[in-house]
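Record filed here:
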Amino acid sequence: MVLVRGKNVKEREASYIDYNLIFIVLFLIAFGLVMLYSVSSYDANLTFGDSAYYFKHQLLVSVIGLGVMLVVAHIPYKLWNKLSFIAYGVSVFMVVLVSFIGTEANGAKRWIRIFGISIQPSEIAKVGIIIFLASIIYRLGPSLNNTKSFWIVFLSPAPLSFLVYTITDNLSSAIILMAISYIMLFVATPGYARFLFIALAIIAAGVLIVMIAVNSDSLGVNGGFRFLRIQAWLDPEAYINSKGYQTLQALYAIGSGGIFGKGLGQSMQKMGFVPEAQNDMIFSIICEELGLFGAMAVILLFVLLVWRMMIIANNAPDLFGALLVVGVMAHISVQVILNICVVTNTMPNTGITLPFISYGGSAVLFLLIEIGIVLSVGRSIGKQ
């Protein structure tokens, strides 16, 4: 990047801010708040007597998150390299803490309350694992080509992923943690053979699990509600009164939206038909109210967000900075894909939110922290 002589330091620093990225994030948050109010107003009025209950909570967290994002954006990203092992340790500690002081909501014990604020430790774990992996990959460098080193790094999130799954019963977050590891290593190391092997092994394991779930009765295997979810995924109409209900209602919403939708606020499925529509299934209501056009616009926004992060990663001053951005990019990409796949019944229901749009304070707060880290890397482009 060419710098014009005579400009002061503040002017030069300002030129490194990716305003396109900031605009996309702000637009996603604003759009999410509008859709959240539209989707949740009916349920919020019945449950709390305040149609803006969910909206006000999300707005408050979003404002706080944007403030934290600006603070993180001005922290030199290289500092995270020194704190990487602490980040991993804090992630483990917070997840384990759920076992002792965790609070339960909607049948799941995944939150802890700190100073009256509910925090989901699995969201902390995602940030922690991005920082940890970026640091360890950066430190190992070329030695990652060694098979032993590669597998140690790839499996390093496994203990944390296991804790997230067993303690918080959050399979989707456990999957995301391992997916982040896969993508960051894929970007940082040459060759495709190992990654192809891992992908094929995961597909084979998935097919085996589905076959066992389908034949669980004849095999005498009790897979609990997860096997029921797989069975409902394959034939939701057969489980319309249980695990297939939410999926079918979401599909009805998507189908009734057509090309341009029924109009903002005109959804019928949000009137108690889609359970917790403001959370995991908000994309289905977007499809119903804004149609295929609105759904594609949302997907395009996420594509643009990933594209801007890819530009920052390609121009980062060093590998560590690039890997931090790649980790954030991997997290958001995987979560968006999984959410849309669940809503459209392309994969079994795993209970995963749509970034920046679904209701959830912890998710928005820590996503904005990740964006702050990306902006911090971006501000360093061109500085030596």
Notes: The longest strand covers residues 108-114. The longest helix spans residues 282-314. Residues 133 and 245 are 39 Å apart (CA to CA).
